Amino acid sequence: MAKSCVWVICLFSLLLGHGVLELEASQHEYRNPQSMQSQSSKRQPYRTAYHFQPPQNWMNDPNGPMIYKGIYHLFYQYNPYEAVWGNIVWAHSTSTDLVNWAAHPPAIYPSHPYDINGCWSGSATILPGEKPAILYTGINPQNRQVQNLAMPKNLSDPFLIEWVKSPYNPILIPTFENNIDPSSFRDPTTAWLGPDGRWRMIIGSNRNGRGMALLYRSKDFIHWKKAQHPLHSSKDTGMWECPDFYPVSNSSKNGFDSSVIGSGIRHVLKASLGGTGHEYYTVGTYNPENDTYVPDKGFVDDSRGLRYDYGKFYGSKTFFDSAKNRRVLWGWISESTNATIDLTKGWSGLQAIPRKLWLDKSGKQIMQWPVKEIEKLRTNQVNLPSKVLIGGSVLEVAGVTGSQADVDILFEISDYEKADVLDPSWTNPQELCSRNGASVKGGLGPFGLMVLASKDLQEYTAVFFRIFKVQTNYVVLMCTDLSRSSLHLDYDKPTYGAFMDLDPVREKLSLRSLIDHSIVESFGGEGKACFTARVYPTMAIGDGAHLFAFNNGTENVTISSLTAWSMKKAQIN
Ligand SMILES: *[C@@H]1O[C@H](CO)[C@@H](O)[C@H](O)[C@H]1NC(C)=O
Ligand SMILES: *[C@@H]1O[C@H](CO)[C@@H](O)[C@H](O)[C@H]1NC(C)=O
Ligand SMILES: *[C@@H]1O[C@H](CO)[C@@H](O)[C@H](O)[C@H]1NC(C)=O
Ligand SMILES: *[C@@H]1O[C@H](CO)[C@@H](O)[C@H](O)[C@H]1NC(C)=O
Ligand SMILES: *[C@@H]1O[C@H](CO)[C@@H](O)[C@H](O)[C@H]1NC(C)=O
Ligand SMILES: *[C@@H]1O[C@H](CO)[C@@H](O)[C@H](O)[C@H]1NC(C)=O
Fold first, then answer.
1. CB 3.0 to 4.6 Å from 518: which of 46, 134, 167, 304, for a disulfide?
2. DSSP reduced 3-state for 333
3. Any transmembrane segments, and where (predicted)?
4. What global pTM score does this model have?
């Protein structure tokens, strides 16, 4: 508390133009660019080269991502003082390419009773006339969650350094008449405009275990009225954090502004479930006349539903990139270590590489792919000619920096005869991947990559496929197995799994992994299943990190192509 006052005073003197000394003092308080960089990579083996992270301290949800006057903005939940959660402000960085980022002073920080105990997550909306507005959750002196509005101070400043809070704040408070639990009322979305000229937005909530997206409407973006019915809810899902709602097309990979409706437009509703630490989404029909949203048949509308990412990925949020006509997804990667360890290393949390996101042509799922811009970090390309990976073999991919790489591999199977039969009781892919880790031989698979691997294979993170037979069809299981990712005994080393909606007989079975010291982001089937792994190798660090392809099935598998690149370091904050 005291610290926060000191910091706020510093910033206020800066705002009032009291000179440069205060600026340096305040920057020294919350970010100290030299200190991390001078620490040798030996002492900080888990810092990344091209994932977004602040120089130090705690980070969680991405907030208010947007593009304004050609500049990408990322705000994020940040503790300016420690590597654990608390004192939350909106830290702020900007970029022209989503790869290299410059840090700015926090944009929104506790200053009024309505946000004095924290400035929590929220979203940006670009109002007509190219005017950004931020809606965010503030924590008031009674620790109630209220909603606030902030606008840029100077629209001519493309970096939008200074934000002014609305004199109408708080614009929404939880009331008992409205039957809203003041501790479950947060994370307003980007607003969209209905055909009646009124804005809509949703806020995450929970009533007796039923998670929901409360719907609000407004004519002027200041006065908001709760709709009688939530946009959507689902029983036993608990608190819906960071809901997201946006249009996608049934026939194009393009993205759309949140207000777009019309022929061929479907809607995606995503919730982050505080109770499970997982997210899920449905695709469905939104009717703006009566503000109903109905998930399409086949979507599971609870924590067992489809996820953007089956690994560590939470509090995510999309935005419409009007410069490239795409929808871009940001998501937070938390640590798997405890607070003592995080405090010792001085930082906690990263953002996943932003992903372009679109609806698969089947309409059955969302597809994701790292934004194209990240490819400009590729260097030292290595190509492997087509090669049979004999059952039980391992192949080192030499010539790339194993700790900092992008690898894209395409598998081909010629004989499906020996695929194991999928037991109908095996409905939980996570369990199936845990039970049958990378070392358990099957017919077709496990085959895939061992990344962040030590030379002697004592340590590795395995990303792999298994192919099962179901009557006359085949099913692909994708797994990420962390059980051997680190010699640290007591760190969390889970196994992740998902069935892929992919017919290996007719479609390409591809795997791309982005490797960055302590993060592995893997994309199966050109973006059909994504896994983020948070790992802490002890031997596979720096030059000790290697990359292998492997096949631990009995049957041969062909690598029809393999391309790998070392990745250059991005300029981040
Ligand atoms: C607004 O931003 C522009 C561009 O950075 C700058 O030139 C101008 O001085 C700013 N105006 C004020 C009032 O600060
Ligand atoms: C997309 O939706 C439009 C309008 O509902 C429909 O006519 C069209 O057939 C759909 N296209 C695909 C590929 O499903
Ligand atoms: C909303 O409107 C749609 C289309 O007119 C209709 O099918 C649906 O039943 C309506 N829902 C409610 C709850 O009124
Ligand atoms: C955190 O983990 C470390 C190493 O595994 C252990 O020594 C320490 O006791 C743990 N701290 C807490 C607070 O659990
Ligand atoms: C492949 O199987 C062998 C024998 O079970 C095991 O030693 C090795 O670790 C496995 N490879 C992977 C990647 O798990
Ligand atoms: C796997 O490939 C090797 C080398 O091409 C070949 O000798 C072997 O017979 C193949 N095994 C099977 C089961 O097809």
1. 46
2. strand
3. none
4. 0.93
Would the pLDDT of 494 be above 70?
yes
Is 296 one of the annotated active-site residues of the chain? no
Compute the distance between CA of residue 122 and CA of residue 145 in angstroms, rounded to an integer: 12
**∠ Cα 537 542 546 (to 5°):** 75
**Which segments of the chain belong to CATH 2.115.10.20?**
55-370
- Would you say residue 23 has pLDDT above 70? no
- Joined tokens for residue 176: 């008992």
The ligand with the least distance to the CA atom of 443 is: 6
Upper half-sphere CA count for residue 235 (Cβ side, 13 Å): 0
493 pLDDT band (50/70/90 cuts)? very high
Assigned superfamily of 55-370 = Glycosyl hydrolase domain; family 43 (2.115.10.20)
CA-nearest residue, atom 13 of ligand 2 = 251
**Cis before 170? omega within 30:** yes
Return residue ranges of the chain for CATH 2.60.120.560.
Answer: 376-567
Instruction: Give 544's DSSP letter.
Output: G
Least confident of 9-18, 165-174, 311-320, 458-467: 9-18
Amino acid, single-letter form, for residue 289? E
- CB atoms under 10 Å from CB of 153, counted, come to 12
378-384 and 387-389 strand pairing: unpaired
Q: What is the pLDDT of residues 126-156, one digit of tens each?
A: 999 999 999 999 999 999 999 999 999 999 9
Contact 414, 390 (CB under 8 A): no
Domain 376-567 has CATH 2.60.120.560: yes
Mean pLDDT score, 501-526: 97
Å from CA of 544 to ligand 4 middle: 26
Whether the CB-CB separation of 296 and 515 falls below 8 Å is answered with no
What ligand 6 atom has the least distance to the C-alpha of 418?
13
